[in-house]
Amino acid sequence: MAKKIVIASGKGGVGKSTVTVGLGMALTQLGKKVLLIDCDTLRSLDILTGAAEKIVYDWGDVMLGRCKAQEAIYSAMGMSLMTCPKTYKGVSLKNMALLIKLVENDYDYILLDSPAGIEIGFILASFVADRGLVVSTPDSVCVRSVCTTADEMSKYNVKDIRLIINRADKKNIKKNLMLNIDSVIDMTQVQLIGLVPEDEKIRHSSMKGTIYKKGQISYDAFNNIAARIEGKNIPLEV
């Protein structure tokens, strides 16, 4: 049975979807079978994984009986992917739970990419998740939203909620243009599981598939987070 992890952020623009893909690819590199489920109607995972032209059905079609679950699952960079419908029409918590039951025995991990904020897409993802990851950049506005997001996750019995600090720029942190890592941890009161440095190549990921690539400065960060999720004792460097 798959471990189900909701990946969320209180604020948009923090790189949550790229973190979802990078983490999924790192887990795949460890030999794990990974299913990405996009829970955001803006639908970015198919673009980020290069699968956009393949998509015919989404998981909303499964709920409405238009196709079988396997027909809505697509190969994407060594992972599997289910995309989000354009609207949440006909979607319910019960149907989301049934969808997960249909596919969870085929995977080691299901990563649920939640939309920013705490609206219905977030609720759907949190409702079926076992664990939670909250993604934030090291700035005050994003950090403030982490506490609210983590608290809302807890209401849906999500356990072991951890923080990923994304796009951390050491130079800007030293110049006090960004919060230092200790301040972020103190302000959020959420245990840190990983730090992903600012990586300019990720900005072009939708065009060149560079979210997870050996030699990039973010590559080891994703590998370390994946290893920690797997229970390995990898020291945190902050």
Please tell me about this protein's structure.
It is built from ten helices and eight strands. The model has no long low-confidence stretch (mean pLDDT 90). The chain starts with a strand and ends in a 9-residue tail after the last helix. The protein has a single domain (3-229), classed as P-loop containing nucleotide triphosphate hydrolases (Rossmann fold). It has helices at residues 16-29, 45-48, 59-63, 93-103, 120-128, 140-155, 170-174, 181-188, 205-208, 219-229, and strands spanning 3-8, 34-38, 74-76, 79-82, 109-113, 131-136, 159-168, 192-197. The protein has an eight-stranded mixed beta sheet with strand order 3-4-2-5-1-6-7-8, with helices on both faces. 48% of the residues are buried. The protein is of the alpha/beta class.
Could you give the order of strands across the largest sheet?
Answer: 3-4-2-5-1-6-7-8
Number of strands: 8
**Based on CA inertia axes, which overall geometry fits?**
globular
What's the CATH superfamily, by name?
Answer: P-loop containing nucleotide triphosphate hydrolases
The level 1 CATH classification is Alpha Beta
Give the ordered list of helices and strands.
Answer: EHEHHEEHEHEHEHHEHH
Number of helices: 10
Largest sheet composition: 8 strands, mixed
Fraction in helix: 25-40%
Cα(first) to Cα(last) distance is 33 Å
Tell me the count of domains: 1
Q: What amount of the residues lies in strands?
A: 15-25%
Just name the CATH architecture: 3-Layer(aba) Sandwich
User: Which consecutive residue ranges, at least 5 long each, have pLDDT under 50?
Assistant: none
Q: What Rg, in angstroms, do the CA atoms define?
A: 17 Å
Secondary structural class: alpha/beta
At the fold tier of CATH, the topology name is Rossmann fold
The whole-number mean of residue pLDDT values reads 90
